[in-house]
Design brief:
Layout (H helix, E strand, L loop, with lengths): L6 H13 L7 E12 L6 E6 L4 E6 L1 H4 L10 E12 L4 E14 L1 H15 L17 E6 L4 H13 L4 E6 L7 H15 L3 E6 L13 H8 L5 E5 L7 H5 L2 E2 L3 H8 L3 H40 L1 H44 L1 H5 L5 E4 L2 E2 L11 E5 L4 E5 L2
Parallel strand pairs: 3-5, 6-7, 6-8, 8-9, 9-10
Antiparallel strand pairs: 1-2, 1-4, 2-3, 4-5, 11-12, 11-13, 13-14
């Protein structure tokens, strides 16, 4: 049986081989910076150096960082001076950087910026092209890897917050050479399936791991969706073209789940509050209508024909009472005038004259005032105070 070695022995052996190779000491390596971080306390810098085909990890300790004359950030092309070493604990080899010389913008960074400019000119990032996220979705589509922790986070949060929604998962490779095509195809399937919202989800990783979400294929697929899309790719500090094109960018998959669905308990609480307010409004409205009806009833009573007839009757009674003394007074005046007229008429009456011994002579209805006008044989009528006789002139 061959000798059995421990993991530490293997790593130590590989480390001794690399450290003993003079060709890996004091070398200059050119590449593009990615995955750059700096420890807040120790000030050590950690980053990756990559070209079109490969990547190697680098570390620069604080003693060398202090003497550094250039600013290090993702996307710049640099020449790193240092030596290749092995971190035995992880069995990973890396460059221990002593100095960093800027070499302009990295090729991949330039390509990414050119693509951003192109898509920006096509309107992919304009706010007016963003679709609103539905407030009460019935179906949520998730484009993610079936085995990813990001998918599990989304399922757990949506199940807890809004369990009545239907969750549809569309499997996609989110890393690798063909990942961009896989994500684009999954987005088209989700769009055609008829979900209300689509979530694109991937957990954190290096910038290389997120390359497919910086591709034009994925950007085209997201922009052409008929359904609102939430992008939750990488960590909060990672911003991909997919994030910029989507209708809403969530910093994490968990945050995307919270944006996609409301919290059912909160909705129930709001509905109860609305129910209470609606009940109060209905009671108040009914009370107001009741008061209005009572007011109209009183008004109708005041304006009813019976009330008006009663009012007219009362007015007639008042007028009658006022008219009676006026009529009596007028009749009294008339009686006095009549009595006076009668007295005056009686004084001028022919009968009064006749009563004193006079008589009235008429011929053929004409009063005879001249006796010479009578002829022998004429028949006359003589009216006395009492009685009337005929006579003939001889």
């Amino acid at each position: 049986m061959s000798v059995v070695l421990s993991v530490s022995q293997i790593n130590r052996y590989v480390a001794s081989k690399i450290k003993g190779d003079n060709r890996l000491k004091s070398i200059y390596v050119k590449g593009e910076v990615s995955n750059f971080t700096q420890n807040y306390n120790s000030k050590h810098m950690y980053f990756s150096l990559k070209d079109e085909n490969s990547l190697i990890r680098c570390v620069m300790f604080s003693s060398n960082v202090q003497a550094l004359k250039c600013r290090v950030e993702n996307g710049i092309s640099v020449i790193v001076f240092g030596s290749v070493d092995v971190y035995e604990r992880d069995g990973a080899y890396q460059i221990i950087a002593v100095d960093i010389i800027p070499d302009g913008e990295g090729i991949q960074s330039k390509n990414l910026n050119d693509l951003k400019d192109k898509l920006s000119q096509k309107g992919y990032f304009k706010p007016e092209n963003k679709k609103p996220i539905p407030e009460l979705p019935k179906k949520i589509g998730v484009v993610a890897s079936l085995t990813s922790a990001a998918l599990q986070d989304i399922i757990n949060i949506i199940s807890r917050r809004f369990p009545i929604v239907k969750l549809c998962v569309f499997n996609a490779a989110v890393q690798g050479a063909l990942a961009d095509r896989s994500v684009a195809d999954a987005l088209k399937k989700a769009d055609a399936y008829g979900v209300d919202t689509i979530i694109i989800a991937r957990g954190g990783g290096s910038s290389e791991d997120l390359n497919c979400f910086n591709s034009e294929i994925v950007a085209d697929a997201v922009f052409n969706l008929k359904i609102p899309c939430i992008s939750a790719v990488g960590h909060e500090t990672d911003v991909t073209i997919c994030d910029m094109t989507a209708d809403y960018r969530a910093p994490t998959p968990s945050a995307a789940a919270e944006v996609a669905v409301p919290e059912l308990t909160s909705l129930i609480s709001i509905l109860k509050s609305f129910k209470s307010k609606l009940y109060e409004l209905c009671v108040k409205s009914l009370s107001d209508r009741d008061k209005e009806i009572s007011h109209l009833e009183e008004k109708c009573l005041l304006l009813s024909p019976v009330k008006r007839l009663e009012a007219y009757g009362n007015r007639v009674d008042i007028l009658k009472q006022r008219l009676k003394p006026l009529v009596e007074a007028e009749l009294f005046k008339c009686n006095r005038r009549f009595s006076s007229a009668c007295t005056a008429l009686e004084a001028l009456s022919p009968l009064k004259v006749l009563s004193r011994g006079y008589s009235l002579v008429e011929k053929d209805g004409n009063v005879i005032t001249d006796g010479e006008k009578l002829l022998s044989g004429d028949v006359i009528d003589i009216t006395f105070s009492k009685g009337k006789q005929k006579a003939q002139i001889l």
